[in-house]
Amino acid sequence: MGQYRQFAGSEQADGSWENGKYILNGVKKFTTGTPDSDRVMLYFRDANTSETLQGVIPRDRAGVTVHDDWNGFGQRQTGSGTVTFDNVALEEDEILKENESYGKDGYSPPLTQSVLTNIYLGIGLGALEAARKYIHEHSLPYALSGVEAASRDPYILRKYGELWAELKGAESLADQASAQLDRVTALGARTSEEERAETAALITAANVQTGKASLDAANRFFELTGTRSATTDNGFDRYWRNVRIHTLHNPLDYKLRNIGDWALNGTPPPLPVAGVNT
Known about the structure:
The protein is of the alpha+beta class. The chain folds into 2 domains: 13-97, Butyryl-CoA Dehydrogenase, subunit A, domain 2 (Beta Barrel); 101-265, Up-down Bundle (Butyryl-CoA Dehydrogenase, subunit A, domain 3), CATH 1.20.140. The chain is built from 6 helices and 7 strands, in the order E-E-E-E-E-E-E-H-H-H-H-H-H. Strands 5-6-2-1-3-4-7 form a 7-stranded mixed sheet, with no helix packed on it. The protein is flat. The two termini are 14 Å apart.
């Protein structure tokens, strides 16, 4: 699931309050997990107040159609397709409330970004480990390298070392951001605005760095492993496909702009941490 708050102009259902319940109509894209889920979580707009609300309804409720039309070249099994709502009833007790102990904005958006950060990191580290194993078991040294094993090739060593350093740096920042999120979550409503802003900026920075490092590792994978590794049977392109399509959800330029505005001018990053581009 993992839906985000919507921005003006994005696709979302409208809800009209009628006889003690909302009647939903509209479309929602990127409803991750719905083809295999029992329930659908969504944000919808109150047609009268324009307020954005969140609800959870059974997937098999009358009027809900799961189209299962996701065909991305990466993240193929996420089921991030379209759901349409045609006069769907959403009962009052199916509306989710903000956890007021987290303060006025809550921490759902930064928490979501933190989860994505670690997904990126996991893909990058997974790619590097797969490359390490392949180099030792299958790669052959280049004819002019002067070494007997690909694992001793000086240029492979340099590239592998560079990617390892990038990912370990990103991992350290991700751990720092997660620890900060734990601290402010524990503080709840006692968290200051400055602490909230610093947390959002730190999580955004970790999101940026893990995405960049993992994309670099996935993109340069075959420079380490060689031509014989670039087969459909090996499927090593999945690392790039998965991290590439996932990092497109949140535009890098906007994240960096938000970080820069906070670091240079003290402007708190907006929530969600980096916006949505789906």
